[in-house]
Amino acid sequence: MARTVAQSLSIRHLRGVTETAASERAIAITGGDAAYFDLMRDCIASLQATEEGRGLALEGHPSNHAAQLTADQFAELAAASGMSPEDPWQRFSEESEAGRICTETALRLRREPFAHAGVARVPVEFEWRHKAVTSTQATLGHFLSDLRRAAPEVAERVVTVSPDVASSTNLGGWINKTGVWSPAGRQDWFADDRDRLLRWRENPGGQHIELGIAEVNLVSLAAELGLTGSRWGQPLIPIATLYDPFINRALEPWTFGVYSGGRSIVIGTPSGVTLAPEGGAHQSINTPSATLEIPGLTSWEPAFAQDLEWTMLQAMRDVLDPAGGSAYFRLSTRPVDQSLARLPEDPLLRRRRRDEVLAGGYRLSAHPAAEDDVTLVGAGAIMTEVCNAAERLAGLGVRAGVVCVTSPGLLFRALHERGRTTASPRSGILDRLFPREHPAPLVTVMDAHPHTLAFLAGARGDRTATLGVTAFGQGASVGDAYRLHGIDAESIAGAALDLAGAA
Asked: Residue 193's pLDDT is what?
């Protein structure tokens, strides 16, 4: 049992006190830590202290944080509290002081019923096409602008937040159109800078919140914004951006935010060793696997612009759905040739591709899986190398299938649910990507730790080579970084040849 007490442990209270009751009380408050007590005795500040186990046999004991009461001690506590161990949940008498406090508190905290606001339907896709060569991070900026045109009622519910990286995560266009939130508005002292592209207009109607370098505050705010629907009937769509490696700073509070029902979209960009020209400090390795493992969260790493559009719209639907969840997007600044996506023009095939994208992945190869000598699997910006490796293998007489993963997390869920006999949501995406009747060796590739996709070996029991990043990053060109970590096209093709048994 612990209760937090605010005590003014000033120099007047502690200085000169030795073997007195006050001294014993102060040491108890500090958990029996004499060194900490000495520090407090010489301190002139007011301190907050936690009194562990007050009134119990373990009060002030250095080990009381993990200690438990014995049965006799528990009975003594019940007797001293006027309670019974056999009836621990009895209520206070309404006539007692404690009962009156509880009643008054319940009335004060009671929430009046409120109407839930209707929310406009999130579109399936936009009518505008993407650039021939672009990055997923650049597409994010275009996506937010297109959302305002295609679904202004939905865009009105979007609130973006960032920890000092708004411009470097491509939120500039959105901020120019929606403004920065401020309770009263503030003057923009750089408004006369003609060379500045970002217009920083702060006003009460702004839809962007800038937090400074504070990732923990970022995800905490995102979770709180994701609770406005259940609290006040006005759902919002929080979208938080930060550099991918720095989500590690905020995983614990964000996980608890998701756990409490605060649905949000967090975007980590740029990511991986693909940003090697910036140096080694901002490169990320573990984020795809870390976000894959959080309950109530779908991790996405789209390679192509259309994939990002579809998955972002789906993430928005999930955030607005009371039974939905949160999402993490890992994006990149690397421009990718969009023709590699082989996006179908036929409406039926396009809908089929969208369904596969939202299920976790799709085949890029024109030939069926039954003809694969080896299957190459990748996610994100590394798909350029995967496709180049497939062409390299074709020149050597090895037919390689190519699978583009959009969500490692959804594929893992599909594998996890496959053997369940109880009622549960199931997906047939793995059987479509890796049909069990047509086994072939797998080479998985990510600009991240290779174990992220290693579970795919269990999809049909294939021999598998897992390629990825297992060392700290270094400053380099993208090509040199890929070769250093063995995720360039030649390394992928070489791993495929080893599995396929070619000379």
From this structure: 65
What does the DSSP 8-state code read for residue 135?
Answer: -
Same domain, 495 and 358: yes
- Domain count within the chain: 3
Residue 392 shares a structural domain with residue 449: yes
Distance of alpha carbon 467 from its chain centroid, rounded?
24
Across 402-425, b (16+ Cβ under 10 Å) vs e yields bbbbbbbbbbbbbbeeeeeeeeee
Give the integer Cα–Cα distance in Å for 376 and 356.
17
Residue 140 has pLDDT above 50, yes or no: yes
Residues 59, 152: Cα–Cα separation, whole Å: 59
Nearest-angstrom CA–CA distance, 120 and 53: 52
Length of the chain: 503
For 46-66, give one letter per residue: b (16+ CB within 10 A) or e: eeebebbbeebebbbeeebee
**Which residue blocks in 286-422 are alpha helix, DSSP H?**
287-292, 305-320, 347-359, 383-395, 408-418
Do residues 363 and 386 make contact, with C-beta atoms less than 8 angstroms apart?
no
Question: What CATH number should be reported for the domain holding residue 203?
Answer: 3.40.50.970
CA atoms within 13 A on the CB side of 24: 5
**Residues contacting 306, CB < 8 A, separation 6+:** 125, 130, 338, 341, 343
| 121 is a domain residue | no
User: pLDDT for 306-359, tens place per residue?
Assistant: 999 999 999 999 999 999 999 999 999 999 999 999 999 999 999 999 999 999
Handedness of CA 486, 406, 411, 357 (dihedral sign): negative
| 24 has pLDDT over 60 | no
Residue entry with tokens 């009962």: 99
**Quick one: how far is CA 357 from the chain centroid?**
19
